[in-house]
Input
Amino acid sequence: MRTLGVELAGAGVVRWDGLDESGHQAASGVFLFALEPGAARITRKLALLS
Output
């Protein structure tokens, strides 16, 4: 798992460069990502095509 950043309250954008925690390019596939606003946890799917 790789942490991409921490955002404060309000709207924001987090971009993933397609690299894994070792700095290698991630393979094509479906990934899960999670947002944790406060006590909630929102999980969604992301498709990476390379």
Remarks:
- The CA atoms of residues 30 and 47 lie 4 Å apart.
- The beta strands are 29-35, 42-48.
